Amino acid sequence: MKRFLILILMVFSLLGTGFSLADEVADSDTQTQESVKDELPDVRVELREQASVEIPAGIVVPVINMQEISTQNCPVGYKVKFVSTNDLYVGDIKVIPENTVFYGYIEKINDPIVGTNASMKVKITKLVYPDNYEQNVKAYIYTTNNNLIGGELTAPAEWVRMPHYQDTYQGISWIHRGATLQMRPGGKRSMGAHTKLPVGERHLIIFIAPVSLTHTISE
Asked: DSSP letters along 9-28, please?
């Protein structure tokens, strides 16, 4: 009987030791997890409520040119870079933050000819947000001449004198009307000049196709 009691006491003693070790291991795991949690950065991002938002075609973005672009020194395909100068909103949602970078290239060049300055079209194909998110776009540097930069008529190459007759008769005879000579442009125009966009010049980018954005923009 005494041996049986001793055996029972030994069993309870071993069970108590096992529970104590299990508690120590659990406490150690909890402390390790809390230590790792403290070391990790806070990566929580405030998401906007909309799953996506559309930048409509026809919207314009004010930008600044980051390098000189010239019909004289730059070939077709020459890569260009512009940076937005303002935040752009669609409704109350910021879709293009300030300092967004726009990349593109010279799509077309028309050389200068007699009577017309050189011209070019600059196509924009990609934007990159300040957080390095990239989005393909279809856009151009905007002008009122179908986005053609340059192409103006040149100054006249010659001027001719032409008489301009008065509405009333003057002089000693009633059949004569007074006239004054005026200088008017002749039929010839001067040679066209090359067109360039200086570095630091401000322009507008116009979207020619809508863009659906699902990227989160943090305020």
From this structure: HHHHHHHHHHHHHHHHHHHH
Same domain, 203 and 165: no
Which tokens belong to 167? 């509405």
Q: What is the DSSP string of 139-154?
A: EEE--TTTT-EE-PBP
d(Cα 144, Cα 109) in Å, to the nearest integer?
Answer: 17
SS3 content of the chain, % helix, strand, coil (to 5): 15, 40, 40
> What one-character DSSP code corresponds to residue 187?
S
Among all chains, which residue has been given the structure tokens 């990239």? 134
Q: What are the tens digits of pLDDT across the range 129-176?
A: 999 999 999 999 999 999 999 999 888 766 666 666 666 555 555 555
Q: Is residue 127 part of a domain?
A: yes
What's the whole-model pTM score?
0.66
